[in-house]
Design a protein that fits this description.
four-stranded antiparallel β-sheet; five-stranded antiparallel β-sheet; Creatine Amidinohydrolase; 4 helices; 26% strand; binds magnesium ion
């Protein structure tokens, strides 16, 4: 999901609100994760996330997002070759699938945005490795979200790790600022050159989200006009956290 806009520096109070939104988002994703098993439908997962968010008097951030048509659900579910933005429905998960779940929550006027990928039942060891590398790429990137670093430092660290492991990163989708809107500036690519780009500042809040592909960096949009899949049908994975840059380093908001 894309868009573009200004960069808004948050004060401590705003960051605390973002933590509360992020926490609800984490609870919604935990509820989804606990249900993932062969036979469950992706619509069931969506219902579980919606229930957690509504019970806390929060709102799903993805619902109604403009596109070819308004996004129709709380979470996105992207199975196997699908990378991001898959729409929940009647599809049943199968043993050996991998599923990426992304969710956004609005609370106290702020958005939490995070995602994970997990195996369904028993998965192959290459699939497991893809998931582990993608999760590690997120940690490596988060560690670069420090005042005084540049945006290129974040992307370069992610890129050198992921490509060094033999995987690929999309160039078509990036991380982004997050706050009162799900998409603020700056864009934060998962590739780039160390020492280049905007300087990061305390109070910036960033949704960092490496999207990793096995075969090539290329993607395609499926006929439903939302789902983004690898162009070659190879597996993909996606992890995301919303993170505040503080004087004490990166603070993960979506836990
Ligand atoms: Mg997301
Ligand atoms: Mg995001």
């Amino acid at each position: 999901m894309m868009g573009q806009r200004g960069i808004f520096i948050k004060n401590q109070q705003e960051i605390e609100s973002m933590r509360r939104a992020g926490h609800i988002n984490a609870l919604a994703l935990e509820a989804v994760r606990s249900l993932i098993q062969p036979g469950i439908t992706t619509a069931d997962l969506d219902a579980a996330a919606t229930e957690v968010i509504r019970k806390r008097d929060a709102k799903p951030a993805f619902l109604g997002v403009p596109g070819a048509y308004p996004y129709p659900a709380t979470i996105t579910v992207s199975v196997n070759d699908e990378m991001v933005h898959g729409i929940p429905g009647k599809r049943k998960l199968k043993d050996g699938d991998i599923i990426s779940v992304d969710c956004g929550t609005i609370f106290e006027g702020f958005v939490g945005d995070s995602a994970f990928t997990v195996g369904v039942g028993e998965i192959s060891s290459p699939a497991q490795r893809l998931i582990e590398v993608t999760e590690m790429a997120l940690s490596i990137g988060i560690d670069k979200l420090r005042a005084g670093n540049r945006i290129g430092d974040v992307g370069a660290a992610i890129q050198s790790y992921v490509e060094g492991e033999g995987f690929h990163l999309t160039r078509e989708y990036t991380g982004h600022g997050v706050g009162r809107s799900m998409w603020e500036g700056p864009q934060v690519p998962n590739y780039g050159f160390a020492g280049r780009g905007m300087v990061l500042r305390t109070g910036m809040t960033i949704a960092l989200e490496p999207m990793v592909l096995v075969g090539t960096p290329r993607t395609k949009v499926l006929p439903d006009q939302w789902t983004v899949a690898s162009a070659d049908g190879s597996l993909t994975a996606h992890f995301e956290h919303s993170v505040a840059i503080t004087n004490n380093g990166p603070l993960i908001l979506t836990v």
